Amino acid sequence: MILDLDCGNTLIKWQLQTNGRVFARGRALSDQELVRQVGCQLDTTPLDLCRLASVRSPAETQELLAVLQMHYPHARLLQATVVESCAGVHNGYLEPGRLGLDRWLAMLGAYHAARQACLVLDLGTAVTADLVDAAGRHLGGYICPGLPLMRTQLQTHTRRIRYDEQEAALSPQELPPGCSTAEAVERGCILMLRGFVLTQLELARSYWQESFEVFLTGGDAALVADHIPGVRHVPDLVFSGLALACPLGGEV
């Protein structure tokens, strides 16, 4: 039995698999909630391996590892790390270790699936784009604020932009000019997000014409997925990369 963990700044995404088949998935807000959710799925089945990808601080990551060791003392714990080269992908950063782990794993998963040049887009709290050529060379990437950060900045630094979550939830259905603050902000942010994605597509075409694949992941991916012909929308792309990276991670 294998437990895969993708530990972000706010959520821990997890999946359980056995014999190559994922049979349970979930999201937890805390370490203890994670253990409860996983425990309900495991029942009395022993856990053999836990693979961990964490963008949390070292202290927070160690706390989670301690919780896992306490509850699953016989499981092997592997933590993924960013390296110069893995699974055919060559890190393009001048200082490889400074590349975000989530970006690295997404690239590993995408290139392994495509086996050709690919554009990897992650639309979450931050939006990232990374380009990997047909030889597996990471050409670099881009980072900009995602929808949550754009909203927060507008509400924090503009006195008259205020609206509640219910208004926000109703506004993105269509994208004509907004007739309320909520509509104007939500639709404007979505158009900025789509504009960023279209620019990345143009950039990828300038390198490879049409000989590349586009991978889309992250919580806001659905907002642009229908606007990219042939895109591969893979919500758990990080987990695909985690399986490739873990053999290079040391045992905790």
From TrEMBL:
<keyword id="KW-0547">Nucleotide-binding</keyword>
<keyword id="KW-0963">Cytoplasm</keyword>
<dbReference type="GO" id="GO:0015937">
    <property type="term" value="P:coenzyme A biosynthetic process"/>
</dbReference>
<keyword id="KW-0630">Potassium</keyword>
<comment type="similarity">
    <text>Belongs to the type III pantothenate kinase family.</text>
</comment>
<comment type="function">
    <text>Catalyzes the phosphorylation of pantothenate (Pan), the first step in CoA biosynthesis.</text>
</comment>
<feature type="binding site">
    <location>
        <position position="93"/>
    </location>
    <ligand>
        <name>substrate</name>
    </ligand>
</feature>
<dbReference type="InterPro" id="IPR043129">
    <property type="entry name" value="ATPase_NBD"/>
</dbReference>
<comment type="pathway">
    <text>Cofactor biosynthesis; coenzyme A biosynthesis; CoA from (R)-pantothenate: step 1/5.</text>
</comment>
<keyword id="KW-0418">Kinase</keyword>
<keyword id="KW-0479">Metal-binding</keyword>
<keyword id="KW-0808">Transferase</keyword>
<dbReference type="GO" id="GO:0004594">
    <property type="term" value="F:pantothenate kinase activity"/>
</dbReference>
<feature type="binding site">
    <location>
        <position position="122"/>
    </location>
    <ligand>
        <name>K(+)</name>
    </ligand>
</feature>
<feature type="binding site">
    <location>
        <begin position="100"/>
        <end position="103"/>
    </location>
    <ligand>
        <name>substrate</name>
    </ligand>
</feature>
<dbReference type="GO" id="GO:0046872">
    <property type="term" value="F:metal ion binding"/>
</dbReference>
<dbReference type="GO" id="GO:0005737">
    <property type="term" value="C:cytoplasm"/>
</dbReference>
<feature type="binding site">
    <location>
        <position position="125"/>
    </location>
    <ligand>
        <name>ATP</name>
    </ligand>
</feature>
<keyword id="KW-0067">ATP-binding</keyword>
<dbReference type="InterPro" id="IPR004619">
    <property type="entry name" value="Type_III_PanK"/>
</dbReference>
<feature type="binding site">
    <location>
        <begin position="6"/>
        <end position="13"/>
    </location>
    <ligand>
        <name>ATP</name>
    </ligand>
</feature>
<protein>
    <recommendedName>
        <fullName>Type III pantothenate kinase</fullName>
        <ecNumber>2.7.1.33</ecNumber>
    </recommendedName>
</protein>
<comment type="subunit">
    <text>Homodimer.</text>
</comment>
<feature type="active site" description="Proton acceptor">
    <location>
        <position position="102"/>
    </location>
</feature>
<feature type="binding site">
    <location>
        <position position="181"/>
    </location>
    <ligand>
        <name>substrate</name>
    </ligand>
</feature>
<keyword id="KW-0173">Coenzyme A biosynthesis</keyword>
<dbReference type="Pfam" id="PF03309">
    <property type="entry name" value="Pan_kinase"/>
</dbReference>
<dbReference type="GO" id="GO:0005524">
    <property type="term" value="F:ATP binding"/>
</dbReference>
